[in-house]
Amino acid sequence: MKVVRRLAFFCVLPLALALTAVYVWYRVSDTGRGWRYEDKLATYCGGLVPYDESAVFTALNTEVGLSQDAEEGYGQDRFRSCRVADLVVSIGLIRADATRQDVGPDMLSTLRRNASDHLPVGLGGGWRGYTDLRTTAVVLPCTNQDASLVVSIDGDESHENAEESRAVGELATAIAREAADRQSCEASFGGRIPELRLAQGQLAPPGTSGTCEGIRIPESQWINWIREGVASDSSPLERCLLGETEARDEVLYSLEASFGPYAQRLRPADHEDDGPEPALTRDSATATASCPGSSVPAVFRIDATVYAAPTKQFLRSALHAFAERSAVRHGCTGLELPD
Q1: Using CA atoms, how far apart are residues 14 and 11, in angstroms rounded to an integer?
Q2: CB atoms < 10 A from the CB of 68, how many?
Q3: One domain, residues 137 and 216
Q4: Distance between start and end Cα atoms, the chain
Q5: Half-sphere exposure in the Cβ direction for 35 (13 Å, CA)
């Protein structure tokens, strides 16, 4: 019996040492980290997060890099929310008749823009999407259903540069490819995202050639600078800012064009109306247009801040110039302006 025990001991000991060595290798080696990371990605965030594009941010750390995974919302409006390092990723199919909810999370509500000092610019590369270096999003209009697949990624100031934001865009497009297949959304994909063309700083009004082009500014409005994004036919969000430096260096007017789900998010919560209608108030004006590939009308707005002295004539003319050019770029027709 002693001989048998000794033989068993000398057989088991090497096996135990070998298993321990394999376990240690699996835990600490670069190859082992990669395998663990791949294993977790198989089920994390519904298996939608890609290895290469996410590893740029997580450095293959499965605990800190892949730390939160949840399914939010109810019924047809359920969507996936997860973290990739310090990025919050929201993925969902937005039906054309969906509205924001008063209670509980919904995908449309995730499309709000976080505070960013940068104006939105198109991602390019054949994708419908944008980044303002804080929020990056991709929109895939489905050709086989009245809905859009949306991937929205929110970051912080650490990603507010062109190189980081391009990498976030690559992550968003890779997720969108996989999510479209899972959601049975037939859509066209783009390619690699090119170097981002960022919006410039403050310019004198005569120098406009982007999203603010064509807006005539009367001297009575005291506007002496503009900030505009690069004109794009694929960005679902465009902005133009008009401001002054004589008194406080403040924004006086903000113009915004919203397309697809980004126009849809402007509908009142839990309301069945089609959305904002052409209208003119004391300090704002709204226009709409029909756009290809979406049953949701595009929405164009101008809003005066508390520092402005708006007139209805200026609100109308500025909105007209902004909306007309934006609508033409996106192939939209039937522009309806306020009376």
Answers
A1: 6
A2: 12
A3: no
A4: 102
A5: 10
Which residues are bridge partners to 303 per DSSP? Answer: 254, 284
Shared domain for 170 and 246, answered yes or no, is: no
Q: For residue 16, tell me if it sits in a domain.
A: no
Helical H segments across the chain, by residue range? 2-28, 30-41, 51-58, 162-182, 261-264, 312-329
Q: How far apart are CA 262 and CA 112, in angstroms?
A: 8
Residue 85 belongs to a domain: yes
Read off the tokens for 118.
Answer: 């940068």
Q: Domain range holding 228?
A: 205-336
pLDDT digits (tens, 9 = 90+) for 6-42: 544 454 445 444 444 444 444 555 678 999 999 999 9
CA torsion 127-90-88-156 (nearest 10°) is: 50
99-118 in b/e form (b: 16+ CB < 10 A) is: bbbeeebbbbebbebeeeeb
Q: How many CB atoms lie within 10 A of CB 53?
A: 18
Is residue 92 within 8 Å of 80, Cβ to Cβ?
A: yes
Domains in the chain, number: 2
Residues 269 and 304 in one domain: yes
Indicate the pairing of strand 87-95 with strand 79-84: antiparallel
Judge if 260 and 331 occupy the same domain.
yes
| In a shared domain, residues 220 and 322 | yes
Q: What letter would DSSP give residue 246?
A: S
Q: Half-sphere exposure of 305 toward its Cβ, with a 13 Å CA cutoff?
A: 14
Interior CA angle at 63 toward 58 and 69, to 5°? 90
Residues 227 and 307 in one domain: yes
Instruction: Kindly report, residue by residue over 197-221, the tens digit of the pLDDT.
Output: 888 888 888 778 899 999 999 988 8
Half-sphere exposure at residue 307, Cβ-oriented, CA atoms within 13 angstroms: 15
Residue 18: what residue type?
A
Distance CA 67, CA 193 (A): 27
- Give residue for tokens 């000398």: 10
